[in-house]
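The protein record quoted for completeness.
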Amino acid sequence: MNRFKQFFYLAVAVVAAVAVAGCSRPDSETPLKDMARNMLRGSVKPKNVDTGLPVITITTEGRLPVTSKEDYLDAVITITDPDTLNNYDGPVEIRGRGNTTWTHPKKPFRLKFKEKTRLFGLEEAKNWVLLANYQDPTLLMNTVAFELGLRFGVPFPHHYRHVEVILNGKYEGSYLFTEHNEVAGGRVEINKKTGFFAELDRYYDEEPKFLSSASKLPVMIKSPENMDDEGYELVTNAVNELDEALFSPSFPDNGYRDLIDINDVVDFIMINEITRNVDLQMPGSIYMYRNSQENPAIAFGPLWDFDYGFGEAGTYFENSAGMFFDTEYRSGPGQKFFARFFEDPVFREAYKTRWNEKYAEIAGMTAFMLQMAALLEKSHETNFKVWWWNREDYQKEMEKMTTWYTNRVEYLNQRINAEF
């Protein structure tokens, strides 16, 4: 190698090292950091991926890299599971997904099958998601939130399966396999004509969209699809009616409760509160829906994206205090909107009642966390051989997580029972 090439490669390595230094679990990425991390990522030979978890192997046509969130690539997928009943082999399409998570070097993916397909015993569907959990030192934050949803019995909960992913012959790491958020059987099951499904998200980058009239919530309509003016007005009128009722001078005795499923709203806010998911305030990745014209109450869900929970990205498992209705973690219309419910004594009483009903299950989640940690110990070790700059001592991180969670639940228990 001549001196020019030696100097060039040395310079690239220095730039990469500088870009990586001090940037573990960043709140956002830059192209330079992304390039640097991809250059410096470790590797694990696929034949050495033996963690006890299912292995999903995906090979794109021509081994083309997955570089787009819009354009699918044809591929072949193989699922090899210790439970051989879950094994699968067939065609699939793959593309990227996510907003901030897509900017990270460990990419999340969307999978689309030509036909409805049953995977891991879940209800058959065409669309599935692989969450990268890049910023999460435990690989468990979304899992804990999804499990809380299951234990609360929320409508349209996310199920999950931890898996290893190999893409085009390269081990990408430990992922979370789960349902895609969409209106379909086994997903968000609503009337496709008179119901609606929408996302509240600060990125506000998908049409059709609108800002709600009172609190300026950024609303992106997911369903009905291919809507006409009548369908658009159906959604805007319903959301604005609730928004205006919440911030009316006559609130809360103005019939606003007739516009919501109060039990659902209680559960949705409570699970976000337990996990201290600040995305609720921005808002980000917050979903809402209405079943039908005959059942017009607005509800929230499915629960989704807890990368900004558990103390917040970059400082996970540190601050366990604060409640959404009187603490502004992130300035945004979501904070104003969701805090407003707590100015209704009826809502506060329903919140307190539900908390005490579920307290034993909420407090008992630490046992679930430790059970999952044992399942993921080998996967964690293997994953962070690739994404080594995010590596943390797993036992210490799990101790921090369970301690934080215990303190969080006790803090909420004291405040809810004293103040509500």
